[in-house]
UniProtKB/TrEMBL annotation:
Family as reported in the entry's similarity comment: Belongs to the multicopper oxidase family.
Region forming the signal peptide: 1-22
InterPro entries for the chain: Cu-oxidase-like_N (IPR011707), Cu-oxidase_2nd (IPR001117), Cu-oxidase_C (IPR011706), Cu-oxidase_fam (IPR045087), Cupredoxin (IPR008972)
Domain of life according to the entry: Eukaryota
Domain Plastocyanin-like: 33-146, 161-303, 384-524
Name of this chain's protein: L-ascorbate oxidase homolog
Length: 555
């Protein structure tokens, strides 16, 4: 029998170690999920910690690594983590959402096993269950390029690569916020903004978050794991060169500030070429009524003298500025991706569209309580995850496919159906999805299991004639897109990843109250070439608990 030699590299501070073997390397993490009390905005409150950290540890991986995360749930509620932007090829079982997984019940553990197959870039993870995201439990997830793949910029040194997590924050606990939503109210305005778990001050005092050496170039990975608020990020006295977003190298434009909408991630290069002293990083709210909320974080030049200037750089005003910034984002067609081929070799603009989906969001009252819907359907999670129901062959007992139409009602949505929202789609279809926002607030949409081409974001109502405005050459391949008030966004993708995949509003309140659906990308062949089996260690729930396991897929 063949033997495998493993070399273990242990990191005591993060609970992680690496196993090197004769296949793609394995990264092992052990995470303890607990409550803790901290005061990000000066008010002591309960938060969710991972290994005692807030925010949680950063996962540093490389293309094709196998990531093993053993999660021990030591809080008092069922819990799941989702790995935002990781495509989980053939493996929706690891996506960490209630449509494809049973939650980790208190006092137990579950070991996630996923591969960052053919991906590079800046991502994050966060809880997907019961508003836990409002309490923390989020962190960065970095996928480095393999050393044999060239990247279109000089790579900063390993210690010159920083994660910056910016998010809105409430001083109420996640359970209190959940009670608000369950009672039919909204979360309303947050109380503050955080940068890496801190609100910061503008008195020039405090410990720097990062220290820079004069003359060096640094990479800042900026992600917004917040609940509902778009944020503008800027660094006092420094420009930012955008090089990557959500897994794609981009045309390297220089920006004074970036709007980072909920669920989005960007990588920028910043050169330490200013007077050696302290400077502020600033994250401030966008599109909120009233005075903007703001957080600061200090960066300090090594050997520098002098505090940061009290003059905070101003944020842009209005959503038209943000829309115009979106239009400057372009895919870098000459760069290599995770594999040794140009990113632009996939000419999405030349593929015939198989199906068009038009999703119109709405806010409605059902039995006097607020619900959010797509095309008049507000999703609820069955006690049996729909993916389990498919695997065990009991879909008729758990949910009905296609309760929601692929186009909205012709008249304004006033009546909402509350039901499991699962669409049956054809494997390998190339589709166009329109997200249309008739409301007065900005929205952000996320597609699990895929990256898509964000070909247009425009004001008004979408019609087929608007296709003439699509960017069919170098739209960025990504996994989130914002939709401005009274506007629409168009994306294109191929449903080539078998499984069941969540499409959701990234605004947590809306997701919790039904603005999501699942796309069942089903392969009737039941072949391991197209989809993996249910993991042996997967917890069971609902109607499948006492059922015998089906015959496994085979080659």
């Amino acid at each position: 029998m063949a033997t495998t030699v493993l070399v273990f590299l242990l990191c005591l501070t993060t609970g992680a170690f690496t196993a090197v073997r004769g296949e793609d390397p394995y990264l092992y993490y052990t995470w303890n999920i607990t409550y803790g009390t901290i005061a990000p905005l000066g008010v002591p409150q309960q938060v969710i910690l991972i290994n005692g950290q807030f925010p949680g540890p950063t996962i540093n991986s490389t293309t094709n690594n196998n990531v093993i995360v053993n999660v021990f749930n030591n809080i008092d509620e069922p819990f799941l983590l989702t790995w935002s932007g990781i495509q989980h090829r053939k493996n929706s079982w690891q996506d960490g959402v209630l449509g494809t997984m049973c939650p980790i019940v208190p006092g137990t553990n579950y070991t996630y096993h996923f591969q960052v197959k053919d991906q590079i870039g800046t991502y994050m993870y966060y809880p997907s269950t019961d508003l836990h995201r409002a309490a923390g439990g989020f962190g960065g997830l970095n996928v480095h390029s393999r050393s044999v793949i060239p990247i279109p910029y000089t790579l900063p040194l390993e210690n010159d690569d920083f994660y910056v997590l910016i998010n809105d924050w409430y001083t109420k606990s996640h359970s209190e916020l959940r009670k608000l939503l369950d009672s039919g109210r909204t979360l309303a305005r947050p109380q503050g903004v955080l940068i890496n778990g801190q609100s910061g001050k503008t008195d020039g005092k405090g410990k720097p978050l990062f220290t820079l050496k004069p003359g060096r170039t640094y990479k800042f990975r900026i992600c917004n794991p917040g609940l509902r608020t778009s944020l503008n990020f800027r660094i006092q006295g420094h420009n930012m060169k955008l090089v990557e977003m959500e897994g794609s190298h981009v045309v390297q434009n220089v920006y004074e500030s970036l709007d980072v909408h909920v669920g989005q991630c960007y990588s920028v290069l910043v050169k330490a070429d200013q007077e050696p002293k302290d400077y502020y990083m600033v994250a401030s709210s966008r599109f909120l009524k009233g005075e903007p909320l703001m957080a600061t974080g200090l960066i300090s030049y090594e050997g520098g003298k002098g505090p940061a200037s009290p003059e905070i750089p101003k944020a842009p005003v209005g959503w038209a500025w943000s829309l115009n910034q979106f239009r400057t984002f372009r895919w870098n067609l000459t760069a290599s991706a995770a594999r040794p081929n140009p990113q632009g070799s996939y000419h999405y603009g030349e593929i015939n569209i198989t199906q068009t989906y038009k999703f119109v969001s709405s806010a409605n009252k059902v039995d006097g309580k607020l619900r959010y819907a797509i095309n008049g359907v507000s999703h609820v999670n069955p006690s049996t995850p729909p993916k389990f129901a498919e695997y065990y062959g009991i879909t008729d007992e758990v949910f009905k496919y296609d309760v929601m139409s692929i186009t909205p009602p012709s008249e304004k949505i006033t009546k909402v159906i509350v039901d499991a929202n699962i669409r049956n789609v054809t494997f390998h279809d190339f589709v166009e999805i329109i997200f249309e926002n008739h409301e007065n607030t900005i929205q952000s949409w996320k597609v699990d299991g895929y990256s898509f081409f964000a070909v247009a974001v425009e004001h008004g109502t979408w019609t087929p004639e608007k296709r003439k405005n699509y960017n069919l050459q170098d739209a960025v391949s990504r996994h989130t897109v914002q939709v401005f008030p009274k506007s629409w966004a168009a994306i294109m993708l191929t449903f080539d990843n078998a499984g069941m995949w969540n499409i959701r509003s990234e605004l947590t309140e809306r997701t919790y109250l039904g603005q999501q659906l699942y796309m069942s990308v089903y392969s009737p062949r039941r072949s391991l070439k197209e989809e993996y089996n249910l993991p042996d260690n997967s917890p069971l729930c609902g109607d499948v608990v006492d059922m015998p396991k089906p015959e496994p897929y085979n080659l």
